[in-house]
Amino acid sequence: MPGFLAPLFMLGALAAAVPIVLHLLKREPEARVRFAAVKLLQLAPVEQSARRRLREWLLLALRVGAIVLLSLAFARPFFSRTVEAEPAGVVVVALDTSFSLSAPGRFERAQELARSAIRQAPPDALVAVVRFADDAEVATVPTPDRATALATIDAARVGFGATRYRPALLAAVGLITERGEGDGAIVMVTDAQQVGWASDDGVMVPGTVRLELEDVGPLVPNLAVTDVRLAGGRAIATVRNFAPAAREARVRLLVDDAMAGEGAVSLGPNQSGSVALPLGEGGSRAEVRVEDPDGLQADNARFSVLDGQSATPILVVTASGDLGREALFVQQALLAAGSSGSAYEVEGVSAEALSGWLVTRLHDYAAVALLSTQGLDRRGRELIREYAMRGGRLLVVAGPGVDGDVVTGALGRGIEVAMPAEAASDPRGERRALMPVDVRHPVFRTLGAAAGTLGLATFRRVASVGAAECDLLARFTTGEAALVECAADGGRTLVFASDLNQAWNDFPRHGIFVPFLHEVVNYLSEGRRRASEYRVAEVPTGIAPGPGFVTLPPARAEASPRVVAVNVDPEESEPARLTAEAFLAAVTRTAPAPPDGAPAGGRPVPPGQQAWRYLLWLMLGVLVVESVLGRRTA
Amino acid sequence: MAASVHGRQFLDPAVVARLSTLELKARTVVEGFLSGLHRSPFKGFSVEFAEYRQYMPGDDLATIDWKVFARSDRHYVKKFEEETNLDCHILLDVSGSMAYGSGAMTKHEYASCLAASLGYLMNRQRDAVGLAAFADRIVTMQAASARPGHLRALLVALDRLKPALETDVARPLHQLADSLSKRGMVVLISDLLDDPERVIRGLKHFQFRGADVIVFHVLDPYELTFPFERATRFEDLETSEEVVAVPALAREAYLKAIKGLIERYRRELGSVGIDYQQLSTEQPLEMALLAYLSTRARAF
User: Fold this and answer.
1) A36 touches chain B (CB under 8 A)
2) By CB distance 3.0 to 4.6 Å, which of A361, A378, A505, B168 could disulfide with B136?
3) Tens of pLDDT along A375-421?
């Protein structure tokens, strides 16, 4: 069925009257000249009047035709196919299963909207169902069977994830475009939370795909535990009232599933408040709950691990592996809880035993402190070297247990460590202090003003550390390098040019020793510390994505399983929502994939609306013929 | 306005065209022309004896009077005064095609002026001059005469001629050639837009009759260059036949045809000793007079 997208342009065809009028008004456009040598002129290519008249009429027809074709092209003709013949594509229903729909009746409402979308799909369209929260899952691949899709929706359950639109749209677009036609529709059944769009989300949906938002409605009034901090033997819970009216929140603390405390806080509309509850002695798991039977259920509780099961493992290499005798100060400093409340799990090993290890085993530790090279054979040196080169985090303490040549050979990369000569004449040696070179470095930055107390420690003997390609972080007041950092391939190696066990200095007896060592190890183990808490979307593979306590299998054979807490994403409780227009505006519509051989780019033009291009080409062709013919007639 | 040819200053035909009468035009052209010939080689066509003069080195040996040498054993050369002993017939084409003109003068006006100038010059040199105007037949004819009043009659006849009829150069030429009673000179002034073969045959007829022939082929500049730009309906001045031509497309073939016609006349007439001079109506008339005098010099 032909039609026009811009039929008013057909009025332009009236301009075809112009050449007709000109033709009628000036039927004999050529000049008339009385000439003597007409006989000679007849030898030239002249034309007879009859033929010329025919040519003039042809010219007129071409000119009129060009104008009419131009008008037709601007009127954008199209030839629509019959409804029966046009494939309707795929209708994908994306069902939000995030916990923001966990309030009573909310998810049922979402299911009903999804079922309605399936039923309203064109009869010849395929239907598909995608469930989404943090991630998207294709629950029903495109099928003509509505019953299957409806059953999938009936079987869907609300989860504990947070809303993320991007994976849902990507999955839906993939289902539509994998069939090659690019036609279809995506029906997003969701409560349209604003948090569903991350700032860097960019989703492109083909222009031929219809995108609809089926809004489940605004979130219900809700109380949520958004944070729990453990400090000073107390659990400090933050509770927020996502409601337009003030509410009193009753908060309970359970330690190892036993009631440990209870409190209440009055919260104004959309206000947050904190409740501090004593943890008591012992216990490893804390759970904070707020009573909110009518709101979202998943954010009513928050879980925390109390003991050190999730402490970051640090390996300390000494001559015998006996840390109590050879690395007492280092061990005790690391076992002490830091300012962040975290502690380290310190494990000792002899240098000789280390030679039998594989490098993968070293990577089970967040960092390795090398305090002795006694007994470290060639294989052990190669192990250290490989570890350092392949992303390992290594602290070399160039104290009395370390052989400079062994360390130099093990580290490579131009790092040279030379141990001091025996000072027989002056057993106390030259006295010097530690001095940071760049206080902005992470090792010193968090120490703040306390970094100045580093100078109180007295260093009698120091090793000589030379590393042209490494950064100098601290030096001694006598000019020697004190702390050097060498980074390579994601790994970090710090070389401390003295002892940490009070043999060459009195550093461990100063208060700054523990914070300094914590920051050094913190810096080394950055990105490798064991988490004691996960969000639902971040749980390791194989763990059910739900809030609560989960026991993780041990990373090493000799290690013990550890318990971590899994909590929901508190952002999902945010009630801010998008309008349908704002939601659709966040999606970038793209041109459909061009057919084979067709140029890419440009505004998508539905099939059957390309006629204007052919008309323009035809008009150009007519103009070319008119130009050639007109030149012969001019 | 004057034009310069070979160092001589000639009158522009546009200036001549503005003169009132044909006689005035002829006199202006000829007198101006002759005033520039005081050192020309054309002096002394007459054979009337004037005086003897002793031979001087450099004198033409042909002028030595050998009879006097026989009698006196001295070399004397003869000096002559101009004297008429030549019948000159001017044949003027007055066919319709001669009415064409793109500039100040039509071909007919130019040809008439040329005929008048030649008649004036001939009369001044005491040659007998006659006139025959023709198109497809002889329109008017005046017998050659050197009488003083004859020139006026010739000019009046020229003034009355109007181009109108179709061209048929050959037939009148044959008629005129048959009517020649004595040896003389024939000057044909025409645009020669006719069958060249028949025209040349007619001119050869004059040669056969012992006449010296000079042909002035008069064409308009537009006929020589065909400078038209836009499509034009060309109407034949004689037959009223019409053709429509796009000059850009027809120009090359037309110019080839007109140049071929000119070249053919030049080649074939030259090969039989007929002087041929192609003239454009924008060329000074004196060019034709020079050609005439040159031909006359060879004749005597």
Assistant:
1) yes
2) B168
3) 888 888 888 888 888 888 899 999 988 888 888 887 877 788 888 87
Q: How far is residue B264's CA from residue B222's CA, in Å, rounded to a whole number?
A: 20
Amino acid letter for position A12: G
Q: Do domains A90-219+576-590 and A312-524 have the same CATH topology?
A: yes
Would you state the structure tokens that stand for residue B8, as one six-digit string?
């001589």
SS3 A238: strand
Query: What does the pLDDT look like over A418-453, one tens digit per residue?
Result: 888 765 444 556 788 998 988 888 888 878 778 888
A69 to chain B nearest CA, in Å? 29
> Hey, are the CB atoms on B231 and A634 less than 8 Å from each other?
yes
The 10s digit of each residue's pLDDT in A155-188 is 999 889 889 898 899 899 888 888 766 678 899 9
CATH code for the domain defined by A90-219+576-590: 3.40.50.410
CA A434 to the chain's CA centroid: 42
Minimum Cα–Cα distance from B248: chain A residue: A632
Structure tokens that stand for B42 in this block:
């054309």
Distance CA B148, CA A499 (A): 150
User: Which chain B residues in 162-201 lie under 8 Å from chain A, judged by CB atoms?
Assistant: 191, 193
| Helices B196-208 and B247-271, packing angle to 10 deg | 20
Label residues B53-64 b or e (16+ Cβ within 10 Å = b).
Answer: eebeeeeeeeee
* Domain definitions of chain A by residue range: 2-80+608-633, 90-219+576-590, 312-524, 533-567
**Poorest-pLDDT segment among A112-116, A410-414, B88-92:** A410-414
Q: What is the CATH number of domain A312-524?
A: 3.40.50.880
3-state secondary structure A491-540: EEEEEECCCCCCCCECHHHCCCHHHHHHHHHHHHCCCCCCCCEEEHHHCC
Nearest-CB residue to A36 (from B191, B232, B254): B191
Domain extents for chain B? 2-39+84-299, 48-81
Cα distances (Å, whole numbers) of residue A76 to A138, A384, A605, B173: 40, 74, 11, 75
* Of the listed ranges A120-129, A512-521, B30-39, B41-50, the one predicted with least confidence: B41-50
CATH class of the domain defined by B2-39+84-299: alpha beta
Assign 3-class secondary structure to A107-173: HHHHHHHHHHHHHCCCCCCEEEEEEECCCEEEEEEEECCHHHHHHHHHHCCCCCCCCCHHHHHHHHH
**Whole-angstrom Cα distance, residue B90 to residue B93?**
10
